[in-house]
Design brief:
mainly alpha
Length: 101
């Protein structure tokens, strides 16, 4: 009787810091670079302009926040888009497909 139990976090060893993929780090770093450039170019003087300049960093950070049962928010949004925009008419190719007349 061979019973093998796979630990729940077995894939976390493939991730950077056990949480992020390469794409996640690229997403956050590009948001950070855009934010730094926006602050240097626009030089915000009020709260609204500061929030506008910090928006790319906030969006990037929000997308890579880990959530249960999924990798992060980006993966959830990608799955939702695929669910709503992919083909939903599935062609039946089961074992009794050729039995029908």
């Amino acid at each position: 009787m061979n019973l093998f139990i796979i630990p729940a976090n077995s894939n976390s060893g493939k991730l950077i810091f056990n949480v992020f993929t390469k794409f996640d780090l690229i997403l956050v770093s590009s948001g950070t670079i855009i934010t730094i450039l926006a602050v240097m170019i626009f030089q915000p003087d009020g709260l609204q302009s500061l929030i506008f300049c910090l928006l790319p960093l906030f969006i990037g950070a929000l997308l890579v926040i880990p959530i249960p049962h999924y990798h992060n928010v980006y993966v959830v949004l990608k799955e939702l888009i695929e669910f709503f925009y992919k083909r939903r008419n599935y062609k039946w190719e089961g074992w009794c497909d050729r039995d029908e007349q």
